[in-house]
Amino acid sequence: MGKLDGKVAVVTGGSSGIGLATAKALVDEGAHVFVAGRREVELDKAAAEIGRAVTTVRADVADLDDLDRLWATVREEKGAVDVIVPNAAFVGLSTSAAATPEHFDRTFDTNVRGTFFTVQKGLSLLRDGGAIVVIGSTAAALGNPVLVAYAATKAALRSFTRSWAAELVPRGIRVNSVSPGSIDTPMVEIAVGDRDTAAEIQREQASRIPLGRLGRAEEVAAAVLFLASDDSGFITGHNLVADGGETAI
User: Fold this and answer.
1) Do the strands 54-58 and 81-85 form a parallel or antiparallel pair, or are they unpaired?
2) Is a pLDDT exceeding 80 seen at residue 196?
3) Model confidence over 140-175: pLDDT tens digits?
């Protein structure tokens, strides 16, 4: 018997990395998962990899019409949802001096605006007693000269988590966040646009982690599953840090 048997979940940014690993983990525990992503080809690959109990929806969370279509699909196919995992994010490297308005807007439109309206538009379908697990980042707690806008967006998500947790107490909906540290996903290569540079950055990241390695997407997914399931039934408003000890030791 799975921890999420009969449940319905939505995972945005679910076609690769942490989102895909999370979708797999939720399906493995019995949920039907709606996976949202911007790229149709990657969504098709994700669906094939997950293999069952999955519906893909092409959606850019920064586009409110796309979000309306996502939630309309959930309503039409399942009628309600039990778990929402707002995971979609944009990472672009830039100092404050070099940042363009386009860089700033894209970062905030995806990470902050997209997360807020993903949740807002899903609340009417979220069953009482359900769970929201926001994907944050340890960047919110650290200073990084080339992640200025990104870190600020993740700090906003930590604030959303607390406020939503307080707001949704009357409905028995728990809201928590997971803040990954340096995780071995394609995100670094996408951000820098070069495989060799990405590999060097990841080696430097691993050298700072007490456990001596990058995290795996599956390890973050396990943290999300914990917060999405009844195993964490007495936890709300919390931020679970999955960073190999980097911000704690």
Assistant:
1) unpaired
2) no
3) 999 899 999 999 999 999 999 999 999 999 999 999
Domains and CATH numbers, the chain: 8-242 (3.40.50.720)
pTM: 0.94
Distance CA 225, CA 182 (A): 19
Nearest to 235 by CA among 177, 187, 196: 177
Strands 81-85 and 239-242: unpaired
| Mean of pLDDT values over 95-101 | 97
Name the residue among 121, 91, 87 with its Cα closest to residue 106: 91
Whole-angstrom CA distances from 32 to 149, 159, 184, 199 are: 34, 29, 26, 35
* Distance (Å, whole) CA 154 – CA 162: 13
Q: Report helix, strand or coil for 79.
A: coil
Query: Which residues have a Cβ under 8 Å from the Cβ of 144 and sit 6 or more positions away?
Result: 151
Catalytic residue ranges: 150
